[in-house]
Amino acid sequence: MSGALRVEKLDKSFGGLRVTRTISFALQAGERLALIGPNGAGKTTLVNLISGVLAPDAGRIWLDGADVTAKSQAQRVKAGLVRTFQLTTLAPELPVQRQVELALFEREGLTGRAWRSIDTYPAILREAQDLLCTVGLNALAGAPTGSLAYGEQRLVELALALAMRPRVLLLDEPMAGVPRGESGRLTAVLDGLPATTAVLIIEHDMDLVFRMASRIIVLAEGAVLAEGSPDDIRTHPAVRAAYLGPA
Ligand SMILES: Nc1ncnc2c1ncn2[C@@H]1O[C@H](COP(=O)(O)OP(=O)(O)OP(=O)(O)O)[C@@H](O)[C@H]1O
Ligand SMILES: [Mg+2]
Question: Which residues in 135-173 are b (16+ Cβ under 10 Å) and which e?
């Protein structure tokens, strides 16, 4: 199976509601793919299926040619399939850098060795500092995460995702709830994500989608309504009717 990520004929229903209808697509290494569509179209459900939060009723998921359909969330993260969440799930009292260090500790399988302090692992401390520089939070390394502005907390989440060295990064509405004044920093970091990391981004911010994505998939009522370049999608009559509105 070619592609960094490939999903094949994924199906998911909740009770009688078919939320994912036979969805197939591939994501190439380093590609920027946006997934857009109206509220309730099934975007988050698709990310939940890909990341292993939910099991599909049918279909398969491949990462770098390996079938991960039966793998746990943690196994997928280990294999390089990493997501951020739509809701903030950070420990408010922890300093920002410690939060990142703990993620690195876990990645390295060191969590069971709590008898040795993180501070005795200089490589981890350095990598955490580097990650905070990458997302522009180095000046806030010692601040409790809960004291950060909302947009800054979204940057911490991105640092935590990057700490897992993703080959494929799934971003579910990274700009949701971020005030205009803070959005510039976040988009700069999104623009600067590693070129080797394939990114699947869900966003309702169409400026960001059309600037960042090299390809766009439009979901409506659980199925792929359209797929193509930003120019194709911008002018697609069914997409305009279902989501973007008249030109
Ligand atoms: N755990 C669940 N149980 C029952 N129904 C669910 C569940 N999760 C999602 N749904 C339903 O599935 C449909 C798709 O939801 P989903 O959250 O995937 O949409 P979305 O495209 O991410 O929407 P939004 O843009 O608002 O985030 C909706 O009708 C939703 O109510
Ligand atoms: Mg959603």
Answer: bbbeebeeebbeebeebbbbbbbbbbbbbbebbbbbbbb
Whole-model pTM?
Answer: 0.94
User: Residue 170 belongs to what domain range?
Assistant: 5-244
Q: What is the CATH number of the domain that holds 225?
A: 3.40.50.300
Pocket test for ligand 1, best of 45, 47, 53, 219 (most atoms within 8 A of CB): 45
45-77 pLDDT, tens digit per residue, is: 999 999 999 999 999 999 999 999 999 999 999
pLDDT tens for each residue of 127-169: 999 999 999 999 999 999 999 999 999 999 999 999 999 999 9
Total domain count, the chain: 1
- Cβ of 19 closer than 6 Å to ligand 1, yes or no, is yes
Mutate to test the pocket of ligand 1, among 12, 14, 200 (most ligand atoms within 8 A of CB): 14
Ligand 1 touching residue 53 (CB < 6 A): no
Half-sphere exposure of 206 (CA within 13 A, CB side): 12
